[in-house]
Predict the 3D structure of the following.
Amino acid sequence: MYVLGISRVHDAAAALVRDGEIIAFAEEERFTRVKHDGRFPSRAVEFCLNQAGITLAEVDHVAFYWQRWREAVHAATVFARYFPKTLAVFRNERDGGEKSAGWVDTWRHGGGSGGVDDFHIGGAVLAHIKRTYTIGREVRDAVGYTGPTKFKVHLIDHHRSHAASAFYVSPFDSAAVLTLDGIGSDGTSTCLAVGEGNKITDLKRIKYPHSLGAMYAIVTGYLGFYPTVDEGKVMGLAPLGKDTYVEQFDDLVQLDNDGGYELDLSWFTHHTNGRHMVSRKFIDTFGPPRPRTRVTAENPVPQHYMDIAYALQATLEKAGLHLAKWLQARTGMTKLAVAGGVALNSVMNGRILLETPFEEFFAQPASADDGASVGAALEVTVGRHGLPRPTDGFTYTGPEFTEARMEKALVDAGVEYRRVDDIAAHTAAEIAAGKIVGWVQGRMECGPRALGNRSLLADPRDPESKTRMNEKVKHREAFRPFAPSCLAERAGEYFVSDYPSPVMLLVFDVLEHQREKVPAITHVDGTARVQTVSRTDNPLYHELISRFDELTGVPMLVNTSFNDNNEPIVCTPEDAIACYLKTDVDALALGPFWVQKPGAELEGNK
Ligand SMILES: [Fe+2]
Protein backbone atom coordinates (compact mmCIF):
# COMPACT_ATOMS: atom_id res chain seq x y z
CA MET A 1 0.00 0.00 0.00
CA TYR A 2 1.40 3.39 -1.03
CA VAL A 3 0.56 6.52 0.94
CA LEU A 4 1.71 9.93 -0.20
CA GLY A 5 1.99 12.50 2.60
CA ILE A 6 1.78 16.18 1.73
CA SER A 7 2.91 19.23 3.65
CA ARG A 8 2.27 22.74 2.54
CA VAL A 9 1.67 26.10 4.23
CA HIS A 10 5.32 26.67 4.97
CA ASP A 11 8.09 24.11 4.64
CA ALA A 12 6.22 22.23 1.90
CA ALA A 13 7.33 18.62 1.59
CA ALA A 14 6.24 15.22 0.37
CA ALA A 15 6.72 11.75 1.80
CA LEU A 16 5.99 8.31 0.42
CA VAL A 17 5.29 5.41 2.74
CA ARG A 18 5.05 1.85 1.42
CA ASP A 19 3.43 -0.65 3.79
CA GLY A 20 4.68 1.33 6.75
CA GLU A 21 8.24 1.95 5.51
CA ILE A 22 9.34 5.47 4.59
CA ILE A 23 10.56 5.16 0.99
CA ALA A 24 11.20 8.83 0.36
CA PHE A 25 10.77 12.18 2.02
CA ALA A 26 12.13 15.60 1.10
CA GLU A 27 11.34 19.27 1.40
CA GLU A 28 10.26 21.18 -1.70
CA GLU A 29 12.84 23.91 -1.02
CA ARG A 30 15.68 21.51 -1.84
CA PHE A 31 14.44 21.19 -5.41
CA THR A 32 13.16 24.71 -6.09
CA ARG A 33 16.06 26.37 -4.21
CA VAL A 34 13.60 28.71 -2.47
CA LYS A 35 14.15 28.49 1.27
CA HIS A 36 11.05 27.42 3.27
CA ASP A 37 9.16 27.15 0.00
CA GLY A 38 5.47 26.93 0.86
CA ARG A 39 4.09 26.30 -2.61
CA PHE A 40 2.60 22.93 -3.52
CA PRO A 41 5.45 20.38 -3.27
CA SER A 42 5.33 19.31 -6.93
CA ARG A 43 9.03 18.52 -7.22
CA ALA A 44 9.06 16.64 -3.95
CA VAL A 45 6.07 14.54 -5.04
CA GLU A 46 7.83 13.78 -8.32
CA PHE A 47 10.96 12.73 -6.42
CA CYS A 48 8.95 10.44 -4.10
CA LEU A 49 7.25 8.63 -7.00
CA ASN A 50 10.53 8.30 -8.93
CA GLN A 51 12.29 6.93 -5.87
CA ALA A 52 9.67 4.19 -5.58
CA GLY A 53 9.54 3.69 -9.37
CA ILE A 54 5.77 4.16 -9.49
CA THR A 55 3.24 6.53 -11.03
CA LEU A 56 0.37 8.26 -9.33
CA ALA A 57 -1.90 5.43 -10.51
CA GLU A 58 -0.33 3.16 -7.92
CA VAL A 59 -0.80 5.51 -4.96
CA ASP A 60 -3.58 4.24 -2.69
CA HIS A 61 -3.92 7.18 -0.32
CA VAL A 62 -2.93 10.82 -0.11
CA ALA A 63 -2.61 12.21 3.41
CA PHE A 64 -2.71 15.92 4.16
CA TYR A 65 -1.99 17.22 7.64
CA TRP A 66 -4.90 19.64 7.82
CA GLN A 67 -8.59 19.17 8.52
CA ARG A 68 -11.25 21.17 6.75
CA TRP A 69 -13.65 22.87 9.11
CA ARG A 70 -12.20 22.49 12.57
CA GLU A 71 -9.85 25.41 12.13
CA ALA A 72 -12.67 27.58 10.80
CA VAL A 73 -14.87 26.65 13.77
CA HIS A 74 -12.04 27.40 16.14
CA ALA A 75 -11.22 30.66 14.34
CA ALA A 76 -14.88 31.70 14.55
CA THR A 77 -14.85 31.03 18.29
CA VAL A 78 -11.75 33.18 18.74
CA PHE A 79 -13.26 35.83 16.45
CA ALA A 80 -16.43 36.03 18.56
CA ARG A 81 -14.59 35.94 21.84
CA TYR A 82 -12.36 38.92 21.09
CA PHE A 83 -14.84 40.85 18.90
CA PRO A 84 -14.81 43.70 17.83
CA LYS A 85 -11.02 43.91 17.91
CA THR A 86 -10.95 40.84 15.68
CA LEU A 87 -12.42 42.81 12.77
CA ALA A 88 -8.76 43.59 12.10
CA VAL A 89 -8.34 40.16 10.46
CA PHE A 90 -10.02 41.55 7.37
CA ARG A 91 -7.31 44.13 6.87
CA ASN A 92 -4.65 43.65 4.29
CA GLU A 93 -1.35 44.74 5.70
CA ARG A 94 1.55 43.33 3.78
CA ASP A 95 4.54 45.01 5.27
CA GLY A 96 7.94 43.58 5.93
CA GLY A 97 7.92 41.28 2.92
CA GLU A 98 5.20 39.00 4.28
CA LYS A 99 3.69 36.52 1.90
CA SER A 100 0.35 36.43 3.66
CA ALA A 101 -2.42 38.90 4.23
CA GLY A 102 -5.91 39.33 5.62
CA TRP A 103 -9.12 37.61 4.56
CA VAL A 104 -10.07 40.01 1.80
CA ASP A 105 -6.69 40.07 0.12
CA THR A 106 -6.32 36.32 0.39
CA TRP A 107 -9.78 35.82 -1.15
CA ARG A 108 -9.03 38.17 -4.02
CA HIS A 109 -5.73 36.49 -4.80
CA GLY A 110 -6.91 32.95 -5.19
CA GLY A 111 -6.78 31.75 -1.62
CA GLY A 112 -3.09 32.11 -1.19
CA SER A 113 -2.08 29.79 -4.01
CA GLY A 114 1.20 31.67 -4.33
CA GLY A 115 2.29 30.51 -0.89
CA VAL A 116 0.97 31.71 2.44
CA ASP A 117 2.49 31.22 5.82
CA ASP A 118 0.67 31.41 9.11
CA PHE A 119 2.17 34.76 10.02
CA HIS A 120 -1.22 36.27 9.25
CA ILE A 121 -3.83 33.90 10.59
CA GLY A 122 -6.65 35.94 9.03
CA GLY A 123 -5.79 34.95 5.49
CA ALA A 124 -4.24 31.62 6.35
CA VAL A 125 -7.53 30.12 7.58
CA LEU A 126 -9.07 30.75 4.19
CA ALA A 127 -6.09 29.35 2.32
CA HIS A 128 -5.99 26.23 4.49
CA ILE A 129 -9.65 25.40 3.87
CA LYS A 130 -9.28 25.88 0.13
CA ARG A 131 -6.35 23.53 0.06
CA THR A 132 -8.28 20.69 1.65
CA TYR A 133 -10.55 20.78 -1.44
CA THR A 134 -7.85 21.10 -4.06
CA ILE A 135 -5.27 18.65 -2.77
CA GLY A 136 -6.27 15.75 -5.06
CA ARG A 137 -6.19 17.92 -8.16
CA GLU A 138 -2.95 19.56 -7.12
CA VAL A 139 -1.25 16.18 -6.69
CA ARG A 140 -2.30 15.21 -10.21
CA ASP A 141 -1.21 18.57 -11.62
CA ALA A 142 2.09 18.33 -9.77
CA VAL A 143 3.22 15.37 -11.82
CA GLY A 144 1.13 16.13 -14.89
CA TYR A 145 -0.74 12.85 -14.51
CA THR A 146 -3.97 12.63 -16.49
CA GLY A 147 -4.71 8.90 -16.27
CA PRO A 148 -7.05 7.20 -13.80
CA THR A 149 -6.14 7.30 -10.13
CA LYS A 150 -7.46 5.33 -7.18
CA PHE A 151 -6.14 7.34 -4.27
CA LYS A 152 -8.37 8.48 -1.47
CA VAL A 153 -7.60 11.79 0.25
CA HIS A 154 -7.31 11.72 4.06
CA LEU A 155 -7.39 14.96 6.01
CA ILE A 156 -5.43 14.25 9.18
CA ASP A 157 -5.40 16.33 12.33
CA HIS A 158 -2.28 18.48 12.32
CA HIS A 159 -0.99 17.63 15.78
CA ARG A 160 -1.74 13.94 15.27
CA SER A 161 0.46 14.21 12.18
CA HIS A 162 3.25 15.74 14.26
CA ALA A 163 2.77 13.12 16.99
CA ALA A 164 2.84 10.26 14.44
CA SER A 165 5.97 11.70 12.82
CA ALA A 166 7.75 11.35 16.14
CA PHE A 167 6.30 8.33 17.92
CA TYR A 168 5.86 5.94 14.97
CA VAL A 169 9.44 6.40 13.79
CA SER A 170 10.91 6.36 17.30
CA PRO A 171 12.42 3.12 18.57
CA PHE A 172 9.98 3.14 21.53
CA ASP A 173 7.17 0.55 21.89
CA SER A 174 5.45 2.97 24.20
CA ALA A 175 6.23 6.57 25.06
CA ALA A 176 4.80 9.87 26.13
CA VAL A 177 4.39 12.21 23.14
CA LEU A 178 4.65 15.99 23.21
CA THR A 179 3.94 18.17 20.18
CA LEU A 180 4.43 21.92 20.19
CA ASP A 181 3.93 24.39 17.36
CA GLY A 182 2.20 27.67 16.48
CA ILE A 183 -1.24 26.43 15.54
CA GLY A 184 -2.78 23.26 14.13
CA SER A 185 -5.89 22.50 12.13
CA ASP A 186 -8.25 22.58 15.13
CA GLY A 187 -6.47 25.47 16.82
CA THR A 188 -4.27 23.16 18.86
CA SER A 189 -0.83 24.53 19.67
CA THR A 190 0.26 21.93 22.20
CA CYS A 191 -0.71 18.28 22.44
CA LEU A 192 0.21 15.93 25.28
CA ALA A 193 -0.37 12.33 24.31
CA VAL A 194 0.69 8.78 24.87
CA GLY A 195 1.77 6.31 22.21
CA GLU A 196 1.50 2.54 22.56
CA GLY A 197 2.29 0.21 19.69
CA ASN A 198 0.16 1.33 16.75
CA LYS A 199 -1.94 3.81 18.66
CA ILE A 200 -1.60 7.36 19.88
CA THR A 201 -4.07 8.65 22.47
CA ASP A 202 -4.44 12.33 23.30
CA LEU A 203 -4.36 13.32 26.96
CA LYS A 204 -4.58 17.07 26.67
CA ARG A 205 -4.72 19.78 24.02
CA ILE A 206 -3.98 23.46 24.49
CA LYS A 207 -5.41 25.77 21.87
CA TYR A 208 -4.53 29.02 20.14
CA PRO A 209 -4.23 31.87 21.04
CA HIS A 210 -2.45 30.11 23.91
CA SER A 211 0.58 28.91 22.03
CA LEU A 212 4.26 28.71 22.96
CA GLY A 213 5.07 28.58 19.24
CA ALA A 214 3.10 31.78 18.64
CA MET A 215 4.77 33.47 21.61
CA TYR A 216 8.23 32.57 20.35
CA ALA A 217 7.34 33.68 16.81
CA ILE A 218 5.91 36.99 18.02
CA VAL A 219 8.97 37.89 20.07
CA THR A 220 11.20 36.68 17.21
CA GLY A 221 9.47 39.31 15.07
CA TYR A 222 9.88 41.92 17.81
CA LEU A 223 13.62 41.17 17.86
CA GLY A 224 13.87 42.06 14.18
CA PHE A 225 13.91 38.53 12.77
CA TYR A 226 11.33 36.76 10.62
CA PRO A 227 8.61 34.94 12.60
CA THR A 228 8.16 31.19 11.90
CA VAL A 229 11.56 31.17 10.16
CA ASP A 230 14.25 32.67 12.39
CA GLU A 231 13.42 31.16 15.78
CA GLY A 232 16.67 29.17 15.67
CA LYS A 233 18.63 32.41 15.38
CA VAL A 234 16.91 33.75 18.49
CA MET A 235 17.77 30.55 20.36
CA GLY A 236 21.42 31.12 19.37
CA LEU A 237 21.21 34.78 20.39
CA ALA A 238 19.74 34.08 23.85
CA PRO A 239 22.98 33.00 25.60
CA LEU A 240 24.49 36.39 24.77
CA GLY A 241 21.82 38.04 26.88
CA LYS A 242 21.51 38.55 30.60
CA ASP A 243 18.64 37.66 32.89
CA THR A 244 17.42 41.28 33.11
CA TYR A 245 13.85 40.57 31.97
CA VAL A 246 13.32 36.98 33.05
CA GLU A 247 11.06 37.87 35.98
CA GLN A 248 8.93 40.21 33.86
CA PHE A 249 8.64 37.55 31.16
CA ASP A 250 7.27 35.17 33.78
CA ASP A 251 4.05 37.12 33.38
CA LEU A 252 3.75 36.17 29.71
CA VAL A 253 2.96 32.49 30.33
CA GLN A 254 0.74 31.35 33.19
CA LEU A 255 1.43 27.71 34.03
CA ASP A 256 -1.33 25.75 35.77
CA ASN A 257 -1.16 22.65 37.95
CA ASP A 258 -2.77 20.41 35.37
CA GLY A 259 -0.10 20.33 32.68
CA GLY A 260 -1.52 23.36 30.91
CA TYR A 261 -0.69 26.98 30.34
CA GLU A 262 -2.21 30.20 29.11
CA LEU A 263 -0.55 33.20 27.58
CA ASP A 264 -1.30 36.54 29.19
CA LEU A 265 -2.81 38.00 26.04
CA SER A 266 -2.36 41.60 27.15
CA TRP A 267 1.23 41.30 25.84
CA PHE A 268 0.24 40.21 22.31
CA THR A 269 -2.16 41.01 19.49
CA HIS A 270 -2.29 37.73 17.54
CA HIS A 271 -5.68 36.78 19.01
CA THR A 272 -7.25 39.98 17.71
CA ASN A 273 -5.60 40.97 14.45
CA GLY A 274 -4.34 37.55 13.39
CA ARG A 275 -0.78 38.78 13.07
CA HIS A 276 2.18 37.73 15.14
CA MET A 277 2.79 41.02 16.93
CA VAL A 278 3.43 42.28 20.43
CA SER A 279 0.93 44.67 22.03
CA ARG A 280 1.24 48.33 22.94
CA LYS A 281 1.75 47.22 26.57
CA PHE A 282 4.76 45.14 25.51
CA ILE A 283 6.27 48.07 23.63
CA ASP A 284 5.58 50.47 26.52
CA THR A 285 7.33 48.03 28.87
CA PHE A 286 10.23 46.75 26.76
CA GLY A 287 10.63 49.52 24.19
CA PRO A 288 10.16 49.59 20.41
CA PRO A 289 10.90 46.54 18.26
CA ARG A 290 14.31 46.18 16.62
CA PRO A 291 13.95 47.09 12.95
CA ARG A 292 14.16 44.06 10.67
CA THR A 293 17.64 44.82 9.44
CA ARG A 294 20.45 42.46 8.65
CA VAL A 295 22.76 41.81 11.59
CA THR A 296 26.37 42.60 10.71
CA ALA A 297 29.55 43.65 12.53
CA GLU A 298 28.49 47.26 11.89
CA ASN A 299 24.89 46.60 12.86
CA PRO A 300 25.03 44.24 15.84
CA VAL A 301 22.03 43.29 17.95
CA PRO A 302 21.95 45.72 20.90
CA GLN A 303 22.36 44.16 24.35
CA HIS A 304 18.76 45.06 25.26
CA TYR A 305 17.40 42.75 22.56
CA MET A 306 19.81 39.99 23.52
CA ASP A 307 18.40 40.25 27.04
CA ILE A 308 14.87 39.94 25.63
CA ALA A 309 15.97 36.83 23.68
CA TYR A 310 17.42 35.42 26.91
CA ALA A 311 14.14 35.99 28.76
CA LEU A 312 12.11 34.49 25.91
CA GLN A 313 14.24 31.36 25.80
CA ALA A 314 14.13 31.01 29.60
CA THR A 315 10.34 31.35 29.52
CA LEU A 316 10.00 28.69 26.84
CA GLU A 317 12.31 26.31 28.70
CA LYS A 318 10.37 26.76 31.93
CA ALA A 319 7.08 26.03 30.16
CA GLY A 320 8.54 23.06 28.27
CA LEU A 321 9.87 21.53 31.48
CA HIS A 322 6.50 22.10 33.14
CA LEU A 323 4.64 20.29 30.35
CA ALA A 324 7.14 17.44 30.21
CA LYS A 325 7.10 16.89 33.98
CA TRP A 326 3.29 16.77 34.02
CA LEU A 327 3.26 14.38 31.09
CA GLN A 328 5.78 12.11 32.77
CA ALA A 329 3.90 12.10 36.07
CA ARG A 330 0.57 11.48 34.35
CA THR A 331 1.81 8.62 32.14
CA GLY A 332 4.53 7.17 34.38
CA MET A 333 6.54 6.63 31.21
CA THR A 334 10.29 7.03 30.98
CA LYS A 335 10.44 7.68 27.24
CA LEU A 336 9.45 10.84 25.41
CA ALA A 337 8.96 11.52 21.70
CA VAL A 338 8.66 15.14 20.51
CA ALA A 339 7.78 17.00 17.31
CA GLY A 340 6.32 20.31 16.12
CA GLY A 341 8.27 23.41 15.19
CA VAL A 342 9.01 24.24 18.83
CA ALA A 343 10.69 20.84 19.21
CA LEU A 344 13.50 22.25 17.04
CA ASN A 345 14.44 24.17 20.18
CA SER A 346 17.31 21.87 21.04
CA VAL A 347 18.23 23.81 24.18
CA MET A 348 14.78 23.13 25.63
CA ASN A 349 15.03 19.50 24.53
CA GLY A 350 18.38 19.02 26.28
CA ARG A 351 16.96 20.37 29.51
CA ILE A 352 13.87 18.15 29.26
CA LEU A 353 16.08 15.08 28.92
CA LEU A 354 18.44 16.03 31.75
CA GLU A 355 16.03 17.71 34.18
CA THR A 356 12.86 15.61 34.09
CA PRO A 357 12.38 11.95 35.05
CA PHE A 358 12.28 11.04 31.36
CA GLU A 359 15.25 8.77 30.69
CA GLU A 360 14.94 8.38 26.94
CA PHE A 361 14.23 10.97 24.29
CA PHE A 362 13.44 10.98 20.59
CA ALA A 363 13.03 14.00 18.34
CA GLN A 364 11.74 13.89 14.78
CA PRO A 365 14.56 15.45 12.68
CA ALA A 366 12.03 17.30 10.51
CA SER A 367 10.07 18.50 13.52
CA ALA A 368 8.44 21.44 11.78
CA ASP A 369 5.61 21.07 9.28
CA ASP A 370 7.83 19.40 6.69
CA GLY A 371 7.97 16.25 8.84
CA ALA A 372 4.24 16.34 9.45
CA SER A 373 3.84 15.01 5.89
CA VAL A 374 5.57 11.82 7.03
CA GLY A 375 3.39 11.81 10.13
CA ALA A 376 0.16 12.21 8.14
CA ALA A 377 1.15 9.30 5.89
CA LEU A 378 2.06 7.13 8.90
CA GLU A 379 -1.20 7.96 10.63
CA VAL A 380 -2.95 6.41 7.60
CA THR A 381 -0.74 3.30 7.36
CA VAL A 382 -0.07 2.63 11.03
CA GLY A 383 -2.86 4.43 12.87
CA ARG A 384 -5.78 3.69 10.53
CA HIS A 385 -4.72 0.52 8.72
CA GLY A 386 -2.75 -1.14 11.50
CA LEU A 387 0.29 -1.73 9.31
CA PRO A 388 3.68 -2.12 11.02
CA ARG A 389 5.61 0.93 12.11
CA PRO A 390 8.73 1.87 10.09
CA THR A 391 11.81 -0.12 10.97
CA ASP A 392 14.20 1.50 8.57
CA GLY A 393 15.87 4.93 8.44
CA PHE A 394 13.91 8.12 8.75
CA THR A 395 16.73 10.67 8.37
CA TYR A 396 18.53 10.05 5.07
CA THR A 397 15.37 9.92 2.97
CA GLY A 398 16.21 12.34 0.14
CA PRO A 399 17.71 11.90 -3.32
CA GLU A 400 21.09 10.32 -4.02
CA PHE A 401 23.08 10.48 -7.21
CA THR A 402 25.24 8.08 -9.16
CA GLU A 403 28.98 8.58 -9.64
CA ALA A 404 28.33 9.03 -13.35
CA ARG A 405 25.93 11.90 -12.65
CA MET A 406 28.43 13.49 -10.25
CA GLU A 407 31.24 13.21 -12.77
CA LYS A 408 29.10 14.66 -15.54
CA ALA A 409 28.22 17.64 -13.30
CA LEU A 410 31.93 18.21 -12.64
CA VAL A 411 32.80 18.01 -16.33
CA ASP A 412 29.90 20.31 -17.28
CA ALA A 413 31.01 22.85 -14.68
CA GLY A 414 34.53 22.76 -16.09
CA VAL A 415 36.22 22.26 -12.74
CA GLU A 416 39.33 20.19 -12.22
CA TYR A 417 38.67 17.10 -10.17
CA ARG A 418 40.19 13.77 -9.31
CA ARG A 419 38.90 10.49 -7.94
CA VAL A 420 40.25 9.62 -4.52
CA ASP A 421 40.56 6.01 -3.37
CA ASP A 422 39.65 6.66 0.23
CA ILE A 423 37.54 9.81 0.33
CA ALA A 424 37.04 9.65 4.11
CA ALA A 425 40.77 9.45 4.87
CA HIS A 426 41.63 12.11 2.31
CA THR A 427 38.96 14.54 3.51
CA ALA A 428 39.91 14.00 7.16
CA ALA A 429 43.53 14.90 6.39
CA GLU A 430 42.54 18.02 4.48
CA ILE A 431 40.23 19.21 7.28
CA ALA A 432 42.97 18.55 9.84
CA ALA A 433 45.27 20.67 7.64
CA GLY A 434 42.84 23.57 7.83
CA LYS A 435 40.51 23.25 4.87
CA ILE A 436 36.79 23.91 4.94
CA VAL A 437 35.23 21.13 2.92
CA GLY A 438 31.81 20.62 1.36
CA TRP A 439 30.91 16.97 1.97
CA VAL A 440 28.19 15.54 -0.30
CA GLN A 441 27.54 11.82 0.03
CA GLY A 442 24.65 9.36 -0.23
CA ARG A 443 20.99 10.23 0.30
CA MET A 444 20.18 13.77 1.37
CA GLU A 445 19.06 14.20 4.96
CA CYS A 446 15.64 15.60 5.87
CA GLY A 447 14.97 18.47 8.25
CA PRO A 448 16.76 21.75 8.76
CA ARG A 449 20.07 20.32 10.02
CA ALA A 450 22.76 18.86 7.81
CA LEU A 451 23.55 15.49 9.31
CA GLY A 452 26.65 14.42 7.45
CA ASN A 453 25.46 13.90 3.88
CA ARG A 454 25.16 17.54 2.71
CA SER A 455 27.48 19.14 5.24
CA LEU A 456 30.15 21.78 5.38
CA LEU A 457 32.93 20.58 7.64
CA ALA A 458 35.82 22.19 9.48
CA ASP A 459 38.33 21.60 12.26
CA PRO A 460 36.77 22.06 15.74
CA ARG A 461 40.19 22.70 17.34
CA ASP A 462 40.73 25.91 15.40
CA PRO A 463 39.14 28.92 17.15
CA GLU A 464 39.12 30.66 13.76
CA SER A 465 37.03 27.96 12.07
CA LYS A 466 33.80 29.73 12.96
CA THR A 467 34.93 33.11 11.63
CA ARG A 468 36.41 31.56 8.52
CA MET A 469 33.25 29.59 7.79
CA ASN A 470 31.19 32.74 8.20
CA GLU A 471 33.47 34.88 6.07
CA LYS A 472 34.09 32.34 3.35
CA VAL A 473 30.80 30.58 3.00
CA LYS A 474 27.91 30.97 5.36
CA HIS A 475 27.81 34.75 5.64
CA ARG A 476 25.55 34.43 8.60
CA GLU A 477 25.19 36.33 11.87
CA ALA A 478 28.38 36.09 13.92
CA PHE A 479 26.49 35.25 17.12
CA ARG A 480 25.19 31.94 15.79
CA PRO A 481 27.09 28.90 17.00
CA PHE A 482 28.36 26.01 14.88
CA ALA A 483 27.58 22.49 15.94
CA PRO A 484 29.75 19.39 16.33
CA SER A 485 29.34 15.93 14.85
CA CYS A 486 30.96 13.62 17.40
CA LEU A 487 31.57 9.88 17.34
CA ALA A 488 28.69 8.52 19.43
CA GLU A 489 30.99 6.24 21.41
CA ARG A 490 33.22 9.15 22.42
CA ALA A 491 30.60 11.82 23.23
CA GLY A 492 30.90 11.23 26.97
CA GLU A 493 34.49 12.50 26.88
CA TYR A 494 33.37 15.94 25.74
CA PHE A 495 29.79 16.58 26.83
CA VAL A 496 27.90 16.34 30.13
CA SER A 497 25.70 13.67 28.57
CA ASP A 498 26.53 10.98 26.04
CA TYR A 499 22.87 10.37 25.30
CA PRO A 500 22.47 9.68 21.56
CA SER A 501 21.60 12.80 19.58
CA PRO A 502 21.68 11.55 15.99
CA VAL A 503 19.60 14.39 14.56
CA MET A 504 21.25 17.31 16.37
CA LEU A 505 18.21 18.23 18.42
CA LEU A 506 19.78 18.14 21.89
CA VAL A 507 22.05 20.80 23.38
CA PHE A 508 24.41 19.76 26.16
CA ASP A 509 27.13 21.56 28.10
CA VAL A 510 30.65 20.94 26.83
CA LEU A 511 32.72 19.59 29.75
CA GLU A 512 34.64 22.50 31.16
CA HIS A 513 38.07 20.95 30.82
CA GLN A 514 37.46 20.22 27.13
CA ARG A 515 36.20 23.63 26.03
CA GLU A 516 39.60 24.98 25.06
CA LYS A 517 40.25 21.90 22.97
CA VAL A 518 37.19 22.41 20.76
CA PRO A 519 36.58 26.18 20.73
CA ALA A 520 34.90 26.22 17.32
CA ILE A 521 31.89 24.24 18.54
CA THR A 522 31.53 25.67 22.03
CA HIS A 523 28.91 28.42 22.24
CA VAL A 524 29.41 31.47 24.45
CA ASP A 525 27.52 29.77 27.32
CA GLY A 526 29.65 26.62 27.11
CA THR A 527 27.05 24.54 25.29
CA ALA A 528 26.96 22.70 21.98
CA ARG A 529 24.17 21.35 19.79
CA VAL A 530 25.55 17.87 19.45
CA GLN A 531 25.12 15.37 16.67
CA THR A 532 26.29 11.96 17.79
CA VAL A 533 27.30 9.77 14.86
CA SER A 534 27.19 5.99 15.10
CA ARG A 535 28.52 3.52 12.58
CA THR A 536 25.00 2.17 12.14
CA ASP A 537 23.39 5.55 11.45
CA ASN A 538 25.93 6.78 8.90
CA PRO A 539 28.92 4.49 8.22
CA LEU A 540 30.83 6.79 5.84
CA TYR A 541 30.44 9.87 8.03
CA HIS A 542 31.50 7.80 11.04
CA GLU A 543 34.55 6.68 9.07
CA LEU A 544 35.44 10.28 8.20
CA ILE A 545 35.27 11.45 11.83
CA SER A 546 37.22 8.35 12.96
CA ARG A 547 40.00 9.19 10.49
CA PHE A 548 40.05 12.77 11.76
CA ASP A 549 40.30 11.40 15.30
CA GLU A 550 43.25 9.19 14.32
CA LEU A 551 45.07 12.26 13.01
CA THR A 552 44.19 14.71 15.75
CA GLY A 553 42.92 12.83 18.80
CA VAL A 554 39.66 14.77 18.56
CA PRO A 555 36.62 12.63 17.63
CA MET A 556 34.49 15.36 16.12
CA LEU A 557 34.13 17.87 13.30
CA VAL A 558 32.40 21.20 12.98
CA ASN A 559 29.29 20.47 10.94
CA THR A 560 27.03 23.03 9.37
CA SER A 561 24.68 22.76 6.45
CA PHE A 562 26.26 23.05 3.02
CA ASN A 563 24.63 26.17 1.62
CA ASP A 564 25.20 29.88 1.42
CA ASN A 565 23.31 32.13 3.83
CA ASN A 566 19.52 32.02 3.35
CA GLU A 567 19.72 29.23 0.77
CA PRO A 568 18.31 25.74 1.21
CA ILE A 569 20.80 22.93 1.85
CA VAL A 570 22.31 21.70 -1.42
CA CYS A 571 20.61 18.69 -2.97
CA THR A 572 22.10 17.73 -6.34
CA PRO A 573 25.75 17.54 -7.48
CA GLU A 574 25.04 20.66 -9.55
CA ASP A 575 23.83 22.54 -6.44
CA ALA A 576 26.93 21.46 -4.56
CA ILE A 577 29.30 22.56 -7.33
CA ALA A 578 27.47 25.89 -7.72
CA CYS A 579 27.72 26.57 -3.98
CA TYR A 580 31.39 25.55 -4.00
CA LEU A 581 32.11 27.88 -6.91
CA LYS A 582 30.28 30.96 -5.68
CA THR A 583 31.62 30.80 -2.13
CA ASP A 584 35.14 30.45 -0.79
CA VAL A 585 34.72 26.83 0.31
CA ASP A 586 38.25 25.40 0.04
CA ALA A 587 37.34 22.00 -1.32
CA LEU A 588 34.51 19.70 -2.25
CA ALA A 589 34.21 15.98 -1.57
CA LEU A 590 31.49 14.94 -4.00
CA GLY A 591 31.08 11.19 -3.69
CA PRO A 592 34.55 9.81 -4.45
CA PHE A 593 35.59 12.98 -6.30
CA TRP A 594 37.84 15.67 -4.84
CA VAL A 595 37.84 19.27 -6.04
CA GLN A 596 39.85 22.09 -4.56
CA LYS A 597 40.60 25.70 -5.30
CA PRO A 598 44.16 26.62 -6.22
CA GLY A 599 44.15 29.39 -3.63
CA ALA A 600 43.11 26.90 -0.98
CA GLU A 601 46.49 25.20 -0.94
CA LEU A 602 47.39 25.56 2.70
CA GLU A 603 50.64 24.98 4.48
CA GLY A 604 51.02 21.34 5.41
CA ASN A 605 48.75 20.13 2.62
CA LYS A 606 49.81 17.61 0.10
FE1 LIG B 1 2.85 22.35 12.84
About this structure: The pocket of fe (ii) ion is lined by residues 158, 162, 181, 184, 340-341, 369, 372 (CB under 6 Å). The longest strand covers residues 188-196. Residues 303-331 form the longest helix (29 residues). DSSP finds 19 helices and 21 strands in the chain.
